[in-house]
Design a protein that fits this description.
CATH architecture of the largest domain: 3-Layer(aba) Sandwich
Order of helices and strands: EHEEHEHEHHEEHEHEEHEEHEHHHHH
CATH superfamily of the largest domain: NAD(P)-binding Rossmann-like Domain
Strand order of the largest sheet: 3-2-1-4-5-6-11
CATH topology of the largest domain: Rossmann fold
Number of domains: 2
Structural class: alpha/beta
Radius of gyration: 20 Å
CATH class of the largest domain: Alpha Beta
Strand content: 5-15%
Distance between the termini: 46 Å
Number of helices: 14
């Protein structure tokens, strides 16, 4: 029986890499986005707006997926708006597919804000969880659009009879252009600017992040995990953390990132130096760098997301994630974190996104 995948949010960092994995594995793969401009051979693009049910009905008229991978979200001004909009996106999509009765499994990608709190209360006093983070930890007693998205999946599964999986990555490291959260590319752009201007490559975050343990999620690991959970009976109807499988400290990794770019590293100096402020005036400078080196993306905002990098690196606690649940069920993929960053930097350079 053919496996037919619908990747929702195919233009993003997770969706684009997942689509590549699915096509490689021989799936019939559709990719949905408002502008699904992914040049991937074998991917069938679907242009639709998740907030417009009529748009979905037209775009999905001839699409009957067996597996749905939901990787999309929108950032709004308040968490109440985040809940309204992001829950509606999931609900509209699953409502549009319900009459087809083709969906066997839905995978939803959320993240560690499930444990750390939404943007408005992220890693704040009163919402600091015990680490390592484990899937059985209860929801925080606070509104969170991740919870709302999960609840939409649960409700549709009860109605339509499909199985589900929830995937909670830490910071995702991989290539994408124009997405809202991209720490790896943000640091690559920041290091490039430091090199071009002889600025020090200054760690922007907190003492807890500098000295504490951390982990990240290589987008290739996340893609394999999504496919594994969708095709493994024992993984159905479960929520999973997804990380590389090793821990590191930023005070160890920062020097290595600096060495790759040949810039002078400066560690935590007692003060947080948010990248959003450090890079606030660098838009014109990046256009000059892009012109000088003939880079393909001169718009700094389409590559760097300093606000999100500040959120991650400014946390007042160390954050690491337990993967035992997946390991016990047979998912044994492991990724060296240093190589996650270096592979990304090499790809960005190859694709002329950094010099």
């Amino acid at each position: 029986m053919n496996r037919i995948a619908l990747v929702v949010g195919v233009s993003g960092i997770t969706g684009s890499n997942l689509a590549e994995e699915l096509v490689k594995e021989g799936w019939i793969t559709y990719g949905l986005a408002r502008n699904p401009n992914i040049s991937l051979e074998g991917l069938q693009p679907v242009a639709a707006d998740l907030l417009r049910p009529e748009s979905l009905s037209v775009a999905l008229a001839d699409v009957a997926p067996t597996h749905v991978f939901f990787t999309s979200w929108m950032r709004m001004e308040t968490e109440a708006e985040n809940i309204k909009v992001n829950a509606a996106m999931v609900r509209n999509l699953l409502d549009a597919l319900a009459p087809k009765q083709s969906v066997q499994h839905v995978a939803l990608v959320t993240g560690l804000k499930h444990y750390l709190g939404p943007f408005e209360a992220y890693a704040k006093e009163g919402f600091l969880p015990e680490t390592p983070l484990r899937e059985e930890q209860p929801r925080l007693d606070i509104e969170n659009f991740y919870y709302a998205q999960e609840d939409e999946v649960y409700a549709a599964a009860a109605r339509d009879g499909f199985t589900w999986s929830i995937h909670r990555p830490h910071t995702v490291i991989g290539k994408a252009v124009g997405n809202q959260m991209n720490l790896g590319t943000t640091l690559a752009v920041y290091a490039t600017i430091c090199k071009e201007t002889d600025r020090p490559f200054k760690f922007p975050g907190s003492e807890a992040q500098w000295n504490g343990l951390s982990d990240v999620t290589d987008v290739r690991v996340l893609a394999k995990h999504l496919v594994w959970a969708a095709t493994t009976q024992e993984a159905k109807n479960k929520a999973f953390n997804v990380v590389n499988g090793e821990f590191f400290r930023w005070k160890w990794l920062w020097q290595r990132l600096a060495d790759w770019f040949n810039v002078e590293p400066v560690g935590f100096d007692g003060t947080i130096h948010p990248l959003e402020g450090e890079m606030a005036q660098d838009g014109t400078l990046w256009r000059e760098i892009a012109e000088r080196y003939k880079l393909v993306e001169p718009d700094l905002s389409r590559l760097a997301s300093p606000w999100h990098t500040d959120l991650d690196l400014g946390r007042p606690i160390e954050v690491m994630t337990d993967m035992s649940k997946s390991r016990k069920l047979g998912f044994l993929v492991y990724q060296n974190t240093e190589e996650s960053f270096f592979d990304l930097f090499t790809q960005l350079r190859h694709d002329q996104l950094i010099p």
